[in-house]
Amino acid sequence: MTATIMQALDTTIANVALPYMQGSLSATQDQINWVLTSYIVAAAIMTAPVGWITSRFGRKRIFIACAAGFTVASVMCGLAQDITQMVLARLLQGVFGAALVPLSQSVMLDAYSLQERAKAMSLWGAGVMMGPIMGPSLGAWLTEAYSWHWVFFVNLPFGIFTVVGLLIFTDETPKNTALRFDWFGFAALAIAIGAVQLALDRGEQLGWMESNEILAEFIVAGVGFYYFLAHSLTTSHPFIRFELFRDRNFLSGCIFMAVMGVVLFSTMALASPLLQNVMGYPILTAGILLASRGFGTLISFMMVSRLMQHFEARTLILAGLLITCISLWFMSGWTDQTGAIEIAVVSIVQGYSFGLVFSPLSTAAFLTLPNQLRTDGTAMLTLMRNVASSVGIAIVIGQLTEGTRRNHAMLVEHINPFNHALQMPSLRSVIDLSTNAGKAMMERIVNLQAQILSFSRDELLILIFILCTLPMAFMISSTRASLQNRTAVPPQAAKD
């Protein structure tokens, strides 16, 4: 759990500290963005080979090495004196941190019986979901109260505790020293994933397809994926074990984990600028309001293991996604006049819905998957969530920027001498468009309304996306029937 929380926090905790780092490290806006990009790209590339590495060298050894490496890299980030040192340290963070979530989930799945797994997944899921949700709030508080260095130093006690706990309490898994590494498959997939992540992360800054760099990255990604698939489908020992996707529950789990990656991270990417730029909340107040979503998630995780005793996993997943849609509908109506109580209540409900989806999803995905594929499966689920989150963030931020521009152009068309509303004496006494001050005030009003409309349409876009994926929940087989079938197998047969 400490490994999961430590890695999950670092996906979002550094975001709010970027402006403070930029001045301290004497970096440009483009350079400071590499603090986030380097971590995301390194983590995405190194998630894919986690299954092979643990099978070859043993899970305990790799888990300890990654936890220790992540902790050391975090300290290096906090001690960085320039942007080069920071980016290199963040690359190391991503390399070592990629395995922490898949390995922690694999340990949790092995440690508990099928009957206890729902409760274990609820506990484990709390770390995965709470980390990204609480990251901006904790990062804002540490940056304001101390300095941006503590955004990274906070990992030190967690890292030490994790390494000591793994040394004492975990058992080593068998090592397959004869296992060969598919270097060509890994290189093709790594290049493809890295190019996609770079394009998604930098596309909004560079103008997407107007930039030659983004076009080149998408072309490289397409070629990389082509060679990876062509090689993997023709070699006897592919880098990715495609038998994973023969299991219907696991395939459904991958689909909905991608959905959760899009929804969770895209809503978070929208919430912070909405609260600060549109509603005008200070960074700490915005952090507290965002943290209310984590409170709802915590309530959900406390209840979901009991709910799974009475309801199918697919039923809970459908219910959670529908509640998410309801919360997004309310969020689409938020303006600069929306009160803090409404924001907190809707955020709590949305956080509750996330927890209602995540734990049943994690349980169902591995219910019928063979044990020897479990670590590969956890790595694949993590990869799906990470890539999907980058896609979701890129889409909503791109739509937000372009939507604000379009809405601004549409609204200013109505500001003309023929608009009778603008000629009303009560309005002209406040905003006199014949003066520069009046024009500037009107520009601020129009820009604010354009942003509100754009945020609203982004929330509705996510809502429509969820509704389109709902029918796929019926792909998940009956978890209670599968559980009864597996527990009914004689002990010797189960062992074989």
Write the layout of secondary structure elements.
Elements (H helix, E strand, L loop, with lengths): L1 H8 L8 H7 L4 H4 L1 H14 L2 H8 L1 H21 L3 H15 L2 H12 L5 H29 L4 H4 L1 H15 L13 H24 L5 H21 L15 H31 L4 H25 L5 H19 L8 H26 L8 H39 L12 H4 L7 H34 L9 H9 L3 H5 L1
Helix pairs in contact: 1-8, 1-9, 4-7, 4-12, 5-6, 5-18, 6-7, 6-11, 8-9, 8-18, 9-15, 9-17, 12-13, 12-18, 14-15, 14-17, 14-18, 14-20, 15-17, 16-17, 16-20, 18-20
Summarize the structure in words.
With 496 residues, the chain is mostly helical. The protein contains 22 helices and no strands. The longest helix has 39 residues, at 374-412. It is globular, with a radius of gyration of 24 Å. Residues 489-496 have low confidence and may be disordered.
Q: What is the H-and-E element order?
A: HHHHHHHHHHHHHHHHHHHHHH
Strand tally, please? 0
The level of helicity is: over 70%
Classify the beta-strand content into a percent band.
under 5%
Short description:
The longest helix is centred in the last third of the chain and has 39 residues, at 374-412. The protein contains 22 helices and no strands.
